[in-house]
Amino acid sequence: MSIFILKTDKNGKELWRKKYDYGSSSRAVNVTITKKGKILISGIASNNSFLMKLDSIGRRIWYKTYPYEGAFDIHEMPNTNLYISGYYGIDIHEDALIGILDSAGNEIIANNYGDYLANSSGVSRREPVVQ
Question: Were 84 and a residue from 28, 59, 72, 89 both cysteine, which residue would form a disulfide, CB within 3.0 to 4.6 Å?
Answer without folding.
Answer: 72
